[in-house]
Amino acid sequence: MTRARTRPRKSPSQPRSERTVEAIVEATARILETQGLSGFNTNAVADKAGVSVGSLYQYFPNKDALVVALSTRERALLGVALGEAARQAASLPLEGALRRLAHTAIHRQLARPDLARVLDFEEQRLVLEEPDRALTRDIAGNVATLLRRYRAVIQVADLEAAAYDLIAIARALIDAAVLRGQVEPVALEGRVTRAALGYLTGRANVAS
Amino acid sequence: MTRARTRPRKSPSQPRSERTVEAIVEATARILETQGLSGFNTNAVADKAGVSVGSLYQYFPNKDALVVALSTRERALLGVALGEAARQAASLPLEGALRRLAHTAIHRQLARPDLARVLDFEEQRLVLEEPDRALTRDIAGNVATLLRRYRAVIQVADLEAAAYDLIAIARALIDAAVLRGQVEPVALEGRVTRAALGYLTGRANVAS
DNA sequence: ACCTGAACACCGTTCAAGT
DNA sequence: ACCTGAACACCGTTCAAGT
């Protein structure tokens, strides 16, 4: 079981091939969004992108690489939004800061809820198969940095781990809401914020 | 995309075939545990169970049915343990009750942590493909029943949804802990309990 | 330099033939 | 009634041939 690479096989340097790569990634998004995982195969992606499978494999070494490219694109959008939110939140008390992060994450995930949910799922599969290929590392770093400001009111010692846990909690609650169809953003934001705040400041038996 | 059935194709009535089915399910568990999803294929399962693929398909209509059978078995164990815990927790205040449930869930998941994590993952895939086939329905019902006792101190209106959310939170935190290798049970129990308690009783902007 | 699509490999599933 | 394993279908991936 040797490590499979999922980096793009080669970067498109000419404008035309750049458009090809872009078309392939967006075709992946649309197929995952409308057909789900069961409709997601390389021939369908190539078809929808208007190229042959051979071309697809010229840029992506395997099927997972399509997901990684798409996830990276979406994670970058989330990362930028969260970075912005974190900067604005820096002057708020912890609860307000968490609420703002929750608000931002929810807003982004609900922009394309079905896509977001499938990607959350696929990212977990990739992590399951190769833990060190985590796509949320940057985001976790930013969250940890924000948390450090509030160390005085936080009961948890390991803020790196806490950042990952908060992301896992938010993801779980957002995906559950999408599954149930209960996506009223304010209510969802409240649930995420309360869980996060409880995790960080709850008096229930501390220890890490 | 018609609904694929995952129920066992036929119940083994004779002792011999009962042992065959049992062997197939346990072979599934051991392969998932040791090789992960990438080593999980029907021929490998049949081999390890000491039967031919044909025999496997006599009892299980498809590959997913193997996972469903195994998950059902494991969920039943968790369900029994949680039912017992809920009965004992009935006299405790909310925090103690949540802690006891967390303790029980953690204990069961850590009995075979790698298997539990892969099964959590596979269950989410099955839910993603067929939402109404949820394996956690019974467990959620029991949790909701317990929550009703504490309605006075709980800020959340929809206790059914809350039960599913709490399960999702616990699952996310336990799986994240296994991934990081931070499985110190008391600390993990504290994290799950604090998040759950915050979710249910936190003062952060209520609304559902 | 980039594209094509038929060919190959792997694995889920079936089925004709055995006992 | 239960088992076997070769055959088939599907899909990920490659590669010889085209421009």
Describe this protein's structure.
- 2 copies of one chain form a homodimer.
- Chain A is mostly helical and 208 residues long.
- Chain A has 2 domains: 9-61, Arc Repressor Mutant, subunit A (Orthogonal Bundle), CATH 1.10.10.60; 64-201, Orthogonal Bundle (Tetracycline Repressor, domain 2), CATH 1.10.357.10.
- Helix content of chain A is 72%, strand content 0%.
- Chain A contains 9 helices and no strands.
- In chain A, α4 crosses α6 (113-129), α4 runs parallel beside α7 and α8 packs antiparallel against α9 (185-201).
- The longest helix of chain A has 27 residues, at 63-89.
- The two termini of chain A are 35 Å apart.
- The relative contact order of chain A is 0.11.
- The interface between A and B is large, with 53 and 53 residues.
- The first copy, chain A, binds a DNA duplex (19 and 19 nucleotides) through α1 and α3.
